[in-house]
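Session log. Operator J.P. requested a structure for one protein chain; no other inputs attached. Running the standard single-chain path with token output.
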Amino acid sequence: MTFLHALLFVGGFTLVFVALGATASALGSVLSAYQFQLRKVGGILLIIMGLSLVGVLKVPWFFLQKRFAYQSSQPRYAASLLIGGIFAIGWTPCISLYLGTILGLAATAATLKQGVLLLLFYSLGMGLPFLLLGLGVERANRLLRWLKPHTRKIEVGAGLIMILTGVMIFFNWLVILNRYAAPLIRLIRP
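Structure written below.
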């Protein structure tokens, strides 16, 4: 029962994030005329966000959050789906450091399908801890307790990846990366 609630919760925020991705992809095709300028601005924003995560810059509005509590006498499956969607909407500013990166990539994706897939995989990655919690709350608690002392290291690592991604986007080096990655992907595909 807990796993089904977790699955529906993840489904709720996946729907919201995929809708954001589809919107970003559709909007991206309209904004393609400004691709050069947007790439520069997006790269700079990613670098700033990465520097913030690493701790070099302090940008307070990156970390603003609002909370509300929901108490239900008897949890229903539809409520789990709805709360998942509300979670995505409410926490989007809090996870914007990561979500913004994915939405930026979705906006510049070649097709709507690619943009939606980016957000789908983002949601699945974000939802994995919730699904694990739903499967084994006690086991997951031990894992989360083990990860807690490493949270800062994870943030710094993510920040460094964001800085690198921002630099690559700013200088349009992702094209070079694609050139080398494409043959590797063809080797993996059956």
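Operator note: Residues 2-188 form one domain.
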